[in-house]
Amino acid sequence: MQLWYKYDIGHYLDELWRRTADQNRSLDNLSRENRSLIEQIDNANKKIDSLNSTLKETSIKSENIQNLNDQLQTENKELIKIFNALSEHIYDMKHSLHWKIGDAVLFIPSMIYQKIKRK
After folding, report:
1. Considering the domain boundaries, does residue 119 fall inside one?
2. How far is CA 100 from CA 22, 27, 79, 104, 105, in A?
3. Count of structural domains within the chain
């Protein structure tokens, strides 16, 4: 009876050893899969960080461009005001009495100058 008991325990221990080895292999496979998934997550996080950095740089550049555009629009408005003021001044000068008198006084000398210039 003692032999049967030893054989049964030996068989049981062999079975436990086989199951433990199977579980260890399964655990190793799961660990490899886990490491692979962690690596994929790390790579995805690096890409996300890179994209966030690019987005931040682009946002800063966009903000700078918008500020520059605002400055240029303000400067353009000021230049338009100056142009309009100068245009009004020229119009006023050409329609002033002084201008008309000057045209009349210079009419004969300008005719003489043109005739001399053609020769």
Report:
1. no
2. 113, 105, 30, 6, 9
3. 1
